[in-house]
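Instructor's aside before we start: the two examples that follow are unrelated to each other. I chose them only because their records fit on one page, so don't look for a connection. First example below.
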Amino acid sequence: MSDRFFRKQHYHKVHLELRDYAVVLEDAILHGLLEAVERDAWIIGQSNPFVLPIVDYETSKNYKIKDIISKIKEQGYDIITREFQYIERGLLIRMITPGMLIQD
């Protein structure tokens, strides 16, 4: 196609963060593997008969996280994050699942 064709096109600017796409084939493979691990961990976490431990944000040293959580709580939401760990084929899988609840 000619350069003139591309100059006449109107493209919408879309904001994508680096985590939203893979730059090279190796990144695409890695992202695919991480997605598979995350789905596997999520399914195991959902079928787990035990109550998973809740992450305590009050003990966090990350002030940005604390600030974001306090802003969310000011809007009437509560954040509950559960932590799940398991070992699969010698690899420790750690999954942290956040969720927001509307307070009554």
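Example two begins here.
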Amino acid sequence: MYWIQELLPRPLSLSIYAADAEGTSFALQELSSRTRVRELQGQIAAITGIAPDCQRILVGYPPECLDLSNGDAMLGDLPIQSGDMLIVEEDQTRPHTSPSFTRHGAPGYIREPLPVLTRTVVPADNSCLFTSVYYVVEGGVLNPACAPEMRRLIARIVASDPDFYSEAILGKTNQEYCEWIKRYSY
């Protein structure tokens, strides 16, 4: 007879689907087969605002309710696999015994939003900086035709303050710089 013991925790990539009016889904972070049920419930509470003692978590097809009675049980002992979508419902029959929870914020379970980095390809020409600035300022509108407008705007701003935008700053006279920046090719 052989006993196989899991030496390293198996990472789990899980998503939750909040069965509410919005019907939104969220990815859960930093879970493994050794994560405790109570930790999972804490993450879910922070995202959904549903207190751990009022959560019903369903998995599989057809969806079956997970046994959440032992908060110290490990996720590896439950019938969930990496990639599963967990359905979270609020059990209205259970009394609220913990502090009130609000969506996306719960006492002791507050999570900072994760930053998002998006890469957008812009044309690799002499106007890529102008196109990129326009993209950021306009909230994600990619318009390569904006470059001449942006060049004229820069020229007007520079020309409006020749004392600040001097030859020492620009590397050429204010007027030369304004003419130069408006040209598409150098």
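The two ends are 78 Å apart (CA to CA).
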